[in-house]
Amino acid sequence: MQSANVLLKKIIRNSVLPFAAQHGMKKDLFPLSRTLSLSLCLKQDNSGSPSGKLDLDEWKKVMKSGLQEEVSETVSKQKEHSALAAAREILEMWRLAGRSVPENITEEQLKTFMECPSKSAKKKYLKYLHLKEVHKKNDKRKMDEKRERRLEAQKQASETDETKRNSFMFLWANAMDKAYSWRVAQSMIFGQPLIFDMSYEKDMSVREVTNAVRQIVLSESCNRKSVDPFHLHFCNLKDDSLYQKEFIKHYREAWGKLLVTVTDQCYTDIFPKDKLIYLTADSPKVMKTFDHDKIYIIGSMVDKSIKTGVSLARAKRLGLETAALPLEKYLLWNAGAKNLTLDQMMHILLTLKDTGDWKKALEFVPKRKYCGFVNKPVHELKKTLSLINTLKFGKRQEEARRQFAKNYSKKLIQK
Fold first, then answer.
1. Where are the domains of the chain?
2. Which of 61, 91, 235, 299 is 20 to 30 A removed from 72 (C-alpha atoms)?
3. What's the angle, vertex CA 332, arms to CA 327 and CA 336, rounded to 5?
4. How many CB atoms lie within 10 A of CB 352?
5. How many Cβ atoms are within 10 Å of 230's Cβ, its own excluded?
């Protein structure tokens, strides 16, 4: 019987009382729990012994004590919550009154404030928290200002460096442009002439004329930046031709200020024929050295279909000397045409004019067109080949040739 009562007490304390405390049903729940317990006790023991009454009284005491503890805890929490709310209201009133009160205060600081023994101690504590908060804000503001100043200084430094660099590059480009223009101006008086023949408009399409003008523009830029530039002549350039339209489209206002000689006359009417050499890949004559006293002519022609013999035929009609670059003499040429672009020809002629070195000049030939440079002349290569054949076949072949020569000479003597 006693063990059943103890078990019943535990069940009620662990399940019924917390549920009743959460829903505010403690007073109404007690009669139900009491009737349940009494009914259980009556079912188990119908004798109605005095020990049952004593157990019931103990159970009443335990229930009352648990209820008082929970009620006291709830009341203390409510008092604490109300005290914190009252303290916050006091702080808000003091803040509105102009006293030194922190803007943000934690519950621990608020509890410490409530535990202060006097009003002056509370004021001092609040003033301490206020000054601490002010110092923290000042430190943060100083850090932000310092970071902003550093970023602004970096930005100004980068802008200053960029401005200096841009201004330096502008001054440098302006100075170099003046130097290049001065050299070209001198070449127009003292320099060696170089002619671009503009008489191939009918042999090209519009796209090919555009490509030809683009290559001539690159050639003019390369010539202007060289140490000893040519005096460029654009001959046979008619007004309102495709050549002129493309030049104006590219140079715009600078076309009239370009340091080149532009004329619609033929070069044979300006220079003597004995000084003119027409450079064409179809020429049977190979150019050996660069002659500074001659005037070289480059045909301003770009043909995708590679029309052979057009420039050579024009040079023959005019009775001019022709020449081709010695590509096979210095390069191990692959299969294909030996036509080069106009700007590549300009690079080659400028290098020959400055150095006279064919190997250095022919480095401007595209790598896809040859396997490498010939290290030795052709006759030395033939000697090397014969030596290889001799070593390959041995001394017997050489002795047989000598014996044949002796026998042949004897036969001639006998006759």
1. 84-159, 191-373
2. 91
3. 70
4. 21
5. 25
Instruction: Record the tokens describing residue 21, joined without a space.
Output: 């405390």
Nearest alpha carbon to residue 38 among 4, 71, 80, 88:
4
CATH architecture of 191-373: 3-Layer(aba) Sandwich (3.40)
Q: For residues 140 and 151, what is the distance between their CA atoms, to the nearest angstrom?
A: 16
Asked whether 356 and 289 are in contact (CB, 8 A), the reply is yes
In the sheet that 261-262 helps form, which strands lie side by side, from edge to edge? 261-262, 231-235, 193-197, 295-299, 276-279, 321-323
The tokens of 219 are what?
């050639």
Q: Which residue has the tokens 């078990």?
A: 7
The total of other beta-carbon atoms located within 10 Å of residue 402's CB is 10
232 — phi, psi (to 5°)?
-80, 140
Return all residues near 349 (Cβ < 8 A) that are at least 6 apart: 194, 230, 290, 296, 361
